[in-house]
Amino acid sequence: MTISIAKEFTFESAHSLPNVPDGHKCKAIHGHSYVVTLHVRGDVGAHSGWVIDFAEITAAWEPLRKTLDHHYLNEIPGLENPTSERLAIWIWQHIAPVLRGLWRVDVSETRSSSCTYEGRREVPFNQLLLSTIQAVGVDIYERFLRGKGGQS
């Protein structure tokens, strides 16, 4: 049974958006009380009874919190134009390798403004191979492997 869980974190940071037109309020340095929600999806463990220990999510987040909290985001490599969208992608790129089951990152910069990034997922080769065999049928796949290109 697949379940999704979420853990919410906060951090305070300043930023400016260098690519907006002159006169736009976000061009000036300003700050936000960001809320980041990390969503993890997976099967409920038969023994543990949970998808993942919330402490694992917290441990995966902690290095990012230290990098982001009370810092000027524009000075962090990869966040030179730190829109909420780019921040969500940046978080995904840094946390997905260490947080199994991550499927979504929400970033809110205010109570009424947020974005969601569901990330890029790589399909493991064995899963891709199985899907291909299921889609075309074993006999056609075996003929393809023998060099007959799926033709009888």
Put the structure in a nutshell.
With 152 residues, the chain is α+β, with helices and mostly antiparallel strands. 31% of the residues lie in helices and 26% in strands.
How does the helix and strand content classify structurally?
A: alpha+beta
- Return the CATH topology of the largest domain: Tetrahydropterin Synthase, Chain A
Give the SSE order as H and E letters: EEHHEEHH
CATH homologous superfamily (4th level) name of the largest domain:
6-pyruvoyl tetrahydropterin synthase/QueD
The CATH architecture of the largest domain: 2-Layer Sandwich
**Strand ordering within the main sheet:** 1-2-3-4
Descriptive overview:
The protein is α+β, with helices and mostly antiparallel strands. Helix content is 31%, strand content 26%. It folds into two domains: 2-121, 2-Layer Sandwich (Tetrahydropterin Synthase, Chain A); 122-152, no CATH class. β3 (102-108) and β4 (114-117) form a beta hairpin.
